[in-house]
Design a protein that fits this description.
about 80 residues, mainly alpha, about 75% helix
Length: about 80
Amino acid sequence: MSQQKPPKKKNTFRNAAILTGIGFEMGAIIYLSVQGGKWLDAEYQNEKNIFTVIATLLGVAISIWLVLQQLKRIKY
C-alpha cells in the first residue's frame, strides 16, 4: 500500500509579504530617482528638467526589472 503525501501548504502569507515589499520597493526606487533627477537639474541649472525625466524613466525601468526578478522567485 502506498502512502499518500499530504498536500503542500501554500505560502500565502510569505507571498503576500513579498508582494507588499515589492510595492514599497518600487515606490522607493522611483521616488529616489525623481529626487536625484531634480537635484541634478538644480545642480547644473537645467531649465528643461531633462535629468528629472531621464532619472524617472530609469527608475521605472529598474523597478519593473526588479519586480520581474522577484516574481520569478514566488512559489505558487
